[in-house]
Amino acid sequence: MDYNFHWRPVFKSLPDLLESALLTLEVAILSMILGILFGLALSLIRIKMTGPLKWFAVSWIELARNTPALLQLFFFGFGLGAFGIHFSPFLIVLLGLTFNNSGYLAENFRGGFNSIPETQIRASLSLGMNSFQTYTRIIIPQVLRVVYHPMTNQMVWAVLMSSLGMLVGFRELSGETQFFASKTYRIFEYFAATAIIYYVIVKIILGLSRLMASRLFKY
Amino acid sequence: MKMFSKTLVSLFAAVVMLTGSSTAFADKLDDVIDAGVLRCGVVLDFPPIGYRDANNEPAGFDVEYCKDLAAALEVDYEIIAVTWAERLPLIVTNRGDVVFGGTSDTLSRAKTVGFTIPYAIYYAQAVVGADSGIVTVEDMYDKKVAAAVGTVPEQEWLKIAEELGIEGNYQGYQSENEVFLAVAQGKAHAGITTNTTVLPITQQFDTVIAGPRMPWGTDYTSVVGPRMDVTWLNYLNLFVTQQVRSGRYQELWGKFVGGEAPELRIPGVYY
Q1: Structural domains in chain B, sorted by start
Q2: Which of A36, A114, A139, B2 lies most in the core, judged by the most C-beta atoms within 10 Å?
């Protein structure tokens, strides 16, 4: 390859890259929190309900899981833009990631719910708990234990997928990298440094996840 | 028989040495001729300089330049569609031999790739939303402005924004197509492009009209090749001058852009 590496520009803009990495984390964490709430709701609707609401949930899950994440981002960006609905790049990515996370997490939760024997619900009800208490105190804590590791995977996926945000003008870690790379033309150096930053972020997430798991699931 | 074997071995050694030495001194020019294919990176969202025609085939001024160069080399051509940001990586990674992509010959870029003498000249102009109320550049200061990532317009506009302390009104997109779509949809009030692109875009979108000319200088654009392959760059320089001398430059400019082709010489500069 006819190329000499120059790392100085990368070191100079490292503070900006790290700042944009925080933006990456921010959008990924927010999309996960929203994704868990929506995913939980979607899976319960899919399992327990019938009629239009069920079909709405099924359609959401199907679209989120079976269409490219990039198209989902473009839908929230340029698709809704065609109808005069404009969001900021941050919101486009947040909506896109939340939509996608919700679909995948809903199926994880459905698997989790199916893994809990039906008899536990009947036992809880027979002990005098109402339906809400049964789910919040007995079922969902067990489901969360089952889906904990798939949820960690989804978090990693959300961090990495947020890089698609640069295609809708979002200056998160990848967008910022591309900006500096196109400004200085040190393309390989910038993307190599960014790959390392992503790797470190993911390793931190996995480490924290293991730590939390050791505390939460002692028994 | 022994003599024959010795002669055969010597002949073989001579062939190996000759082949080896020719490989050692082969440059990009030889490589392209040997390969029989010229790989041109062309930006195809840059009408009328580079675009796809009604049959989805690459067309435009830059595409014709690629074909002309291939014809001069007596090889086939391959058009590689690139985005603005991909123009330099294409050369650096040797996925392409040359880029005809309206690439401004900045000193910063010249640290990474090699430039020929200018082969086309542009100036930056905005396309604006029909109801944006933008008439002058000053009108753009408090409006949402978009440009393609990795382009000179982006960098020049950001310089102006920094000088004036304007924050948060710039939006970068991957390609000019997205810039134009953003302006047409009202996501951005203005998109900065080149003067030659303004007419086809305003004809394509009802909600987009021509905006003001940008306050920075003329954009001298060059053909791009590998930085260290000077013989290839020399050949490309000759190609650029031949295009002018043969009248082909004027012919293609007239066909795709219209009017008289801009003077390529820079006043006061000796190339």
Answers
A1: 27-122+219-256 (3.40.190.10), 124-213 (3.40.190.10)
A2: A36
Residue B141 pLDDT > 80, yes or no? yes
Q: State the ipTM, two decimals.
A: 0.75
Check if A1 contacts B (Cβ < 8 Å): yes
pTM of the model: 0.79
Cβ atoms of residues A15 and A164 within 8 Å: no
Residue A2 maps to a domain: no
Q: Residue B60 carries which DSSP code?
A: S
Instruction: For residue B109, give the nearest of A81, A89, A185 by CB distance.
Output: A185
* Nearest chain A alpha carbon to B153: A183
Which residue range(s) make up the domain with A85? 8-216
Optimal mutation site among B149, B167, B180, B229, interface A, most CBs of chain A within 10 A = B149
In a domain, A1, yes or no: no
> Stretch B84-104: mean pLDDT, rounded?
92
Tell me the shortest Cα–Cα distance from B101 to chain A, in angstroms.
Answer: 15
pLDDT value of residue B21: 46
What are residue B194's DSSP bridge partners?
Answer: B124
* H-helix segments, B55-190: 61-73, 87-92, 152-164, 176-185
Q: Which pLDDT does position B6 carry in this prediction?
A: 62
CATH number at residue A84: 1.10.3720.10
User: A132-176: per-residue pLDDT in tens?
Assistant: 999 999 998 899 889 999 999 999 999 999 999 998 889 899 999
Of A82, A171, A182, the CB nearest to B185: A82
Residue A182: CB partners within 8 Å, gap ≥ 6?
Answer: B84, B85, B149, B150, B151, B154
Q: CB of B200 within 8 Å of any CB in chain A?
A: no
- pLDDT for B20 equals 46
Nearest CB partner across the interface for A78, out of B146, B149, B185: B185
How far B188 CA sits from the closest chain A CA (Å)?
10
Q: How many domains, chain A? A: 1
